[in-house]
Each structure stands twice: as C-alpha cells, then as structure tokens.
Amino acid sequence: MKIDQRVHNFSAGxxxxxxxxxxxxxxxxxxxxxxxxxxxxxxxxxxxxxxIIEEARTRIRRLYGLDETWEVLFVHGGASLQxxxxxxxxIGQDQCxxxxxxxxxxxxxxxxxxxxxxxxxxxxxxxxxxxxxxxETFDFQExxxxxxxxxxxxxxxxxxxxxxxTNGTPLIADxxxxxLSRPIDLSRFxxxxxxxxxxxxxxxxxxxxxxxxxxxxxxxxxxxxxxxRTYAExxxxxxxxxxxxxxxxxxxxxxxxxxxxxxxxxxxxxxxxAKSLYDAIDADWFYEGTAHAKDRSLMNVTFRLARQELExxxxxxxxxxxxxxxxxxxxxxxxxxxIYNAASEEAVEALIDFMDHFKNRHR
Amino acid sequence: MKIDQRVHNFSAGxxxxxxxxxxxxxxxxxxxxxxxxxxxxxxxxxxxxxxIIEEARTRIRRLYGLDETWEVLFVHGGASLQxxxxxxxxIGQDQCxxxxxxxxxxxxxxxxxxxxxxxxxxxxxxxxxxxxxxxETFDFQExxxxxxxxxxxxxxxxxxxxxxxTNGTPLIADxxxxxLSRPIDLSRFxxxxxxxxxxxxxxxxxxxxxxxxxxxxxxxxxxxxxxxRTYAExxxxxxxxxxxxxxxxxxxxxxxxxxxxxxxxxxxxxxxxAKSLYDAIDADWFYEGTAHAKDRSLMNVTFRLARQELExxxxxxxxxxxxxxxxxxxxxxxxxxxIYNAASEEAVEALIDFMDHFKNRHR
Lengths: 363, 363
What we know:
The structure is a homodimer.
Chain A: E1 8-9, H1 19-27, H2 47-64, E2 70-76, H3 79-90, E3 96-101, H4 104-115, E4 119-125, E5 147-150, E6 152-153, E7 158-159, E8 171-174, E9 189-195, E10 205-211, H5 228-233, H6 243-259, H7 263-282, E11 287-289, E12 300-305, H8 311-320, E13 323-324, E14 335-338, H9 345-362
C-alpha cells in the first residue's frame, strides 16, 4: 500500500471518518481560517471555537429536527461515563429504573447503576440467546423513571428496529453506535447519549440529547461535571470542552447535511450497504450471519465462516487487500464489518468482492 | 497574515503546541505510518494505538524519572473532573483534607470536595491579597490524608517556587499549567494531575501521576470511571481513551525529550523566557507586574499598563503584529502572556519588541 493511500476501514470504533472531512481537517491543522493556529491551540472562549461548537450543536439539532425543548450537550469521556451519570442524575432514592439488557454495553450500564446502590429492574434480557436478538416481550414497571435501552449492539450485531412500547415512560438510550445513522421518533426519548467515536468524530467526548424537562429531575449537589444541568446551563463550557473532537463533529455533521443530504438519505444509503452485505452472507453456506435476521444491525454486520478455521486467514488476506478492522469482538470471535455512516458504498462493494473471491478460492 | 503563517500564540489554554509537532500530526493525519487511516480512526486496542499510548506513558515516566512506584494514567476530561475525583477517592468518611487556596482553580477544587460533603480544612489562603501571592504560613492538620495545592495559578500569574513543608503528609497537586515545565521533587507528592491543554496537547484528557500506595486508599464501589484504580488496573483502557489527544501527548513529550533535551533544559529555557519578559515589564513605569515578585509565575506573566485605558489598544495592536491571546483573564483584566513550553524564545522576543515599540509610541 502506498503511503498516501487509505484503507477501507471497518473498525468498530474508533472508526472511519469521511475522507473529505479528514482532508479539510488536515488542510486547516496549522492555521484555522487565518487564525494562525490550530483549532486545538485556541481558547475555547474565543470567537473561532464558539462558532465551531455552535455549528456542531446547530447541525445536530437540524439533522434530528430538535426543537427548543431539547438540549444538545457535549460531555467529557464516552458512553461509559454516561452509564454512571444516567443513574446519578435520574434514579431518585426510592426509585427503580427499567433496563433492557441486549449486550455487554447494556450490562455495563446496569452495573454502573447498581454500583451506586440505585434501584434497577431488568425489564427484558436476551442473555439466554447470547444477545443475538432483541427481546420482544417486556416486564415494565408502572412507575419507573425511565427505560434504558442500547439501540445498537456492536458485539453481536443487533439493532432495535422498533422501539418498545413503554406506556409513556421515557426512553433513555445509549445510541453510541447508531447515532445520526437514521431518523428517530424523538417523542419516545428523554435522553439520548453517544460516544463520538463511531458515527461522529474522535473519541473523548459524548454527545447528549436531553429533553429539557428531564433537567428538573436532577438532584442538587452532584459533582459539578457529573450533573447534566451544568452542561445545559453553561452550554457545555463550564470547563474546557474537548475542543478538537467537537471541531471534528462540526465537520462530520456538515458532511452529513451537505454531502450526504441529511438523515433520510443517510439511512437509505446505510440500508443499501447493509442489504448488499447481508445478501452476500446469505448467498450460500460459506458465510453465516450470527444475529437473528429480524434484528440484524445496519451498523455492525457480524458473521462467521462455516469453516471457522479459515477466519484468521480471511482477516489477514482482507487486510492485504486494503480492508481493515474485520476481526470480530474478542468475546465472540468471527468476523465483524462495522459499516457506520463513513464506510462508503464503495468500501462495502470492495468487501463483498473480496468475500466472493475468498469463497471461490476456499470453498 | 498569509494563510500558511502561524501567530505567536500566548493563549492561556488551550494553548500553543510546538509547530514541528503540529506538522508531524498534519503529515500523518490521513495515513498514520502506512496504516491507511488516521490515529483518530483506529481501534484503541490495535497495535498502532497501543504503541502510541505506551510511548506517551514511557516518555512522561522518563521525563520525570518516575520509577515503578508510580502510575501514569490518562483520564477523561480535564482538571475540573479531577477536582471531584480527588476527594471521592482520597477523603475517607471521617477524614478532613488540607487545601491551600491560591486562586480560582484551588477554590473550585475546594468546592467540589464540599459538594460531596467531604471534610475540608483551609490550611492557608491568599484570598485577602486577591491571590497575587503564594501563602508562606500554613495551618496544617496532623492527620490530613493529603494537602492539596495548585502549583501554578493562571489567572493571577503566581507559582509555587518552594513546596510547603507538610510534615510528611503527601501533596496532591493540580499541575495543569506547569506540568512538564520543570523538574519536581516527586518524593513530596502522592498524586499530580493536569489537564493536557496547556503544556501537553489538546483538551479532553488529564494526565494523572499517582504513587501506587495511594491506590490502597481508594474505596470500593466508586463509579468505575471515577476510580483511579480502574485506570491503573486497565492501563487507562477500561473504555476508549481520548486517542487523538493522547497521540498528541506522545508527540509533545517526544519533542520535549528529543528536541528540547528534557526537563532541566526546558526549565532553563522557561526561566530565560520569563526573566526577559519580567525585565521588560520592570524596566520603567509603563508596565506593571501584578503578582508579588517572589511568587511570579514562569508560565503566565500577568501585567497591567500604568495607563490602563491603553490595554484594549495594546491587545488589538499586538494581534495585528501576530501576537495572539494576550488579554488577561476576564475576572481580573489587564494583560497576560502565557509562555508555556511551546511558546518559543523567538515568540517572547517578538512580544518584548512589540512592548518596546508600543511604549515608545504611547509613553
């Protein structure tokens, strides 16, 4: 591979960013818009960065059609810190929240609530199926402050395609791996959070969409940076935010709006990419999808080779062919192609071509 | 200013990074070492990033001469989250920690301990002097778990030049604005923390140096990402770390070792830069330093114009001359030149030249 050549990157996260975004970042790296400095060297209170963070916020608002009843917050860390902040902010002393367990990320979210001694009720789990599907029946409590779900499960490659009927209880969702990949029915959610490093930018920041009325539930006297209220009141600038990752988010959301044409268009492309790939998997016995077909993820396509002993060869030959990051999560093995927004249709076609060639050589 | 020209950046943070570091980052932005992707697009568990984080850790260890009794951790967020984590981890239920108050950052650290209902004793404060000096007498408790100090105060431009005698109680220090600027007597410290965005890299990550024996004091059942033990046990990789900022830290520490020649050399350069600038301020009545001379910071040089009404003109003309970020902190006004490691001697000379010319035109 030549030094200036980019691979097709199927990494589960951190993951591919649009090449045109990377080029814009590169061009401006030493001197952003004539400022004589990089975005990462400038005061977060200066005009340049204030414009950048406002653009990131506004574009996210516009992409999801968020009105003024919603806050868009940039919080330090990733989803894992959100696992702790959600119960800290939203499970009161005598309350018990509903959690739906659909994979290791939701298990971790549940664990963080329990560490704090908060009330947790498992309303459904697919653990008995090795998390290869999304549950269909739920044991919701009547007075739960929220129902927590993980909208997409990177490890097993499952995704919620229909939201559960919570009878009015707001959903709080970890949307790290499918945020901004499709339109969503916002009316069902109280809070949506997502680490940036799959569909939005570099790691180190989480985007939180929060319905303003949720702010009233937050107790006083939380550590300042662990209260969503701080981020809302200070427009995510109580302290120095993760300026460069937020800059990247502003560029990625610009690309989503201006190049890809918004979430409807992006969703159509994502559906097309996933369908081509699942069709290739389902073509015959050589490849086998691992998630239940009804719940297959459009973001993380997981499969095995019927002859599993060929999988290491598949991964290493793919890498030689310029297809990177295809090894499955260490806890389950197999193959995983993460095809987030920035994975192009060309990349998916290249993968399908490789799969065909590999099959022809090894069947 | 031409589009490819960089200003002399005196911003208090985020702040200047070495131009050669920025160039290396730029060259590799789309394709890091033949990987075909940016550092910000690659798995944190892959060989490339594992090498990067290990290099950042090792270089910090070597620069400070840290032996195996110390941990080097990369924690999400900046110093403000550390203000909360320190008491959470290190003030036990019946304990009371000593804090020395030397400016708004130490005041914020104290506030975060109190929010959690932790015992806090103010062992000294310079509030009565508007934080323009470092206290010299201390009312230490005998059994405090630690003494907290802020080694450098960006707003008022003061810095600890001699550590207080704590009679064996370990110091915990916020070293955000002078980390890696000079050698330190490590034997006095239990924990040192610093947001990256002044002397090390972009915002979004804090570096924590922690004496291993401090780990034994940490209570069980803290939220996972708020316990230093998690970062120690998982080598700062419990979840996705802020990969790109850590990459920048690896390059800045490489520059510190290989270009600047280590902390002794860096400290000598920093002392020279500060002396030139303070000499220019002290030359006559036109400029006036605002911190007590004995406690002047080598990192943030704060001063006023005797004719304060000229200060806005000073800042705007400086900017036209390619000298950026000289406006004092909004809470105190005046002029502040932040001359962290990456502010070159050439930049400081350019500032002194400008100050001379400005004085000649306006005296």
